[in-house]
Amino acid sequence: MTNASRLRRANLLAWLAIAVATALFIVESRGGVGAPSSEKLAAHASVSAQQAMMGSLVNGATAPAFETAFAQQLSTMRGQVEALTSIDEPGSELATAALLVRLGARERALELLAGLQNRIDAGDVTADEAFVETLDAVTELVDATAQPGARGISDEACADVIKALGTTGKTLVAQAKGDQEALDRLAAAGAVLLMVLVLALLIGGVLALGGLAALVVFLVMAALGKTKGIGATDELWSHVYAEMFAVWMFAYLGLARAPRMLLEIWEGYGNNVPGLDFRLALSVAATIAASAIALWWGTRRGLSLRTIMAAVGLRRFVAMDIVWGVVCWSMGIALLIVGVMLAVVLSNIFGDGQMRANHPIQQMVEDSGATGLFLTYILACVCAPIGEELFFRGALYRNLRQSFGRWGAVGSVVIAMAVSSVLFAAIHPQGLIFIPVLASLAVAFCIMREWRGTINAPIVAHAINNAVVLTLNVLMLRG
Known about the structure:
Number of helices: 18
Number of domains: 2
Structural class: mainly alpha
Mean pLDDT: 85
Strand order of the largest sheet: 1-2
Radius of gyration: 25 Å
Number of strands: 2
């Protein structure tokens, strides 16, 4: 066997490992493994991030400052609210019913709740005693909104609904009691979020225009051969970077995902498990450890740490990396528009139910205290950007560029961007329909990798993006 054949075989084996690890990521993130399951759907009293956002927007639209401007839009929100209800997620009807009451559709809210009760009575949905009590409490409150404050409502029922539905529950309780002062406070908080979102859209629009201009500049510079690319290294080591990426994926699965799955299984049998802060700390430690293990593997395969850092494009950070990071993120926003359009097309093909982009971190934001929220920011804005850029735009991207070098500079760049970006999107838990959205951001990170020759700016852009998204979730779910 020739040396070239051995290298091709090593690269093929590394990619086989990457394929297996990717499949495991997808299965685990879609909830394929867990506690003992039943063919029947289990009801859970909760409010999704989308429902929480819609609730805040509805409250904000009823504030005096926006009431006139959004009067016509309130009627169209009803259909959007009902679209957030999933028959495959029994319990989502509770938040939907509360939102419909706020929109003046009390009878429709009662129909939804009665339908859920019928499914439980028929045995199509399993519900524990706590959920049934919450369902009864929500139904009682919705019914009471016909004559707000006319009859006594137990404090226990109110507390139960607020615990299950958060701000959406507070709104329903205030309506049932006829507490206008509480409704005004909720409307004011919603108005603040509404203004923040409007401001974010305006800033996003400006950044998107700037990002579009930056993309044009990149294309011109690339055509003139003025971009820095990935730099030249010995192609004999290309397969090692694919191996490092595979090791990183398996290490993270073993150190973070597997223990979490075991905890969920243990909890499913009715046992006590460590709290959310412990799980977040475990995720932070696992993310750091997985990167360290993958880098160690590279050194075991004969590369020095300095060589690896140069090959993946990690340099000493300087102030201009922040500027280039903002430019990179602005390109991501511009490409995000294309990603969203593709996601809408896929949603029309596969159904609207696939469009719900839930992420476990949203539950972390809702359930965590101050320590947990701090750890969430560390995980999302420090650990994830550094680790993912090291191995997606660093090791994996280099391997793809070198593996497809015979396709020419343009061909290898296009393939490397496409494959690494789709893989990046696929291992995230938002689902099939959301892949174009995440992949569009990843393409922007790849472009900056080619433009500047380092992953420093993509790390900054990744951190900015996660910080903005996380902060908006904090405002929605905890504001």
